[in-house]
Specification:
- It is a single chain.
- With 284 residues, the chain is mostly helical.
- It contains 13 helices and no strands.
Length: 284
């Protein structure tokens, strides 16, 4: 919804200001200029990126319509899940978690938190490191180093779609210039025509530059930033899980371990201590 509102503001402001300045919208209707710009940018995008990144961009773009994918409820569920797992391990021993982490889809604990179980990467992350804890062969420093390597890889991979979209945005003004230059070349063929004919062709050529800049800074670049923000929000889930697991491995109680995790969250999604305490009690 936020994406649609933003696009409406951009379109309304740009074209509204043009109309109020007594501009004619028909003069901006240049489908072939748009074909050159959009087609060129799309072709460059396909050349530059592997299939996996192209697929992620195509799937992620419609997801921008829904706005932020991870809200306060997701982080609350994660902290409650961490607490439930750590409380069971503290009461019954780490080996008691073996069935939960080997088959999380069958686990009573995991199934209480459906918002998280849909994120398979996060589930694998949590289960893999709890499995290493159960094995008991790694200390906190070794586990943290391994987590950092995996998270760095994950953050880099999740940032590829936004980087690809930003590259498209950076290239759109250039393709606008290409369209404008080609328009000027066409105009040269009408050099002997009356001024009104020449003016129409020159205007059409200039529309190419306008469209390239508008598509870049009004559409593609903000969408790339929105994708990057969504990737960062998902990254916070992993960072929160990491801090909770390391706190537990260092001997802190479940209550303190989830407090470590709560502190790494952004302020707009971070629950208060009392809020989290009440949510955990209700989840038991």
């Amino acid at each position: 919804m936020k994406l649609l509102v933003g696009l409406a503001i951009v379109i309304g402001s740009v074209f509204g200001g043009y109309i109020l300045s007594h501009g004619q919208l028909a003069a901006l209707f240049q489908p072939f200029e748009l074909l050159i710009i959009a087609g060129g940018a799309l072709g460059a995008f396909v050349i530059a990126n592997p299939g996996a990144v192209i697929s992620k961009v195509m799937k992620g773009t419609p997801g921008l319509l829904a706005g932020s994918r991870y809200k306060k409820a997701h982080y609350m569920e994660l902290l409650a899940l961490m607490y439930a797992l750590f409380a069971k391990a503290r009461k019954e021993g780490l080996m008691a978690l073996e069935n939960d982490i080997e088959e999380p889809e069958q686990s009573e604990i995991f199934n209480k938190y459906p918002k998280l179980t849909k994120n398979h990467h996060l589930m694998h992350f949590i289960c893999d490191y709890l499995r290493l804890m159960v094995g008991g062969n790694m200390n906190a420093f070794e586990l943290e180093a391994l987590m950092d390597v995996e998270l760095e890889t994950h953050h880099h991979e999740s940032g590829l779609p936004s980087s690809a979209m930003q590259t498209v945005a950076d290239g759109l003004p250039g393709f606008g210039i290409v369209a404008a230059v080609m328009g000027v070349v066409i105009t040269m063929g009408y050099i002997s025509e009356p001024p009104e004919v020449l003016g129409a062709h020159i205007a059409a050529a200039l529309v190419g530059t306008f469209l390239g800049i508008l598509l870049a800074y009004g559409f593609a670049s903000p969408m790339a930033t929105a994708m990057s923000v969504q990737a960062e929000e998902e990254g916070k889930l992993f960072e929160c899980a990491k801090v909770c697991i390391l706190a537990t491995l260092n001997g802190y109680t479940p209550q303190i371990a989830v407090e470590f995790g709560r502190k790494v969250l952004y302020s707009n999604v971070r629950p208060s201590f009392e809020e989290l305490e009440e949510y955990v009690k209700q989840s038991k």
